[in-house]
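re: that chain from earlier
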Amino acid sequence: MIKLAAVILAAGRASRFQECKALAEINGSPIISFPINAAVTVTQDIFIATGFWHKELEAACKENHWPAKTLYIGKWKEGIGSVISSVTEKLESDYSAILFMLADQPAISTDNIELLWKVFKEHINDAVCCQYHDTVGVPAIASKTMFEELKTLKGDEGAKHLLNNGKHMVNVVAIDQCNIDIDTQEDLDNYIHYLNHMASLW
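^ sequence. v structure.
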């Protein structure tokens, strides 16, 4: 049996957003609530990797009764690679796979995550990741066979090169929603406008 942990990466300062981006609202719901809701159908073990905004996210988690625990990462200043490394080190003894998600991808749906999990369970692989446009990335599920390499990550370099180096069995799933991420207030405003005025056209 595969024991899966879901980790929502929210440790950075989000300096381009100039406030706690993960708690900015989309039609009354914090951005981070969307990946939490998407992950809960595949595992009950959900962690929010926190750093600069730890106190705010921990308080929001308790106030909203989210089915998640905060996991403070002291190395958050070093970059996402160091965060992924620390998360893997903290969870490796209890889990055989980790689903990595971003706090700022509100379009990711339950169906998207269930599809990734289905592919992961039904195929032999070291990882399953999303493909969108000309790249691959998160959400992604990493097997324990990749944990040692994930623990070597440092600084701002994430795990994308591990998915592309040809050393691992990686299954790729095309999910266009992965392309939507919120970096700035303008991104958020545009996404809310799309939801409220244009989504029904598709």
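Residues 126 and 143 are 5 Å apart (CA to CA).
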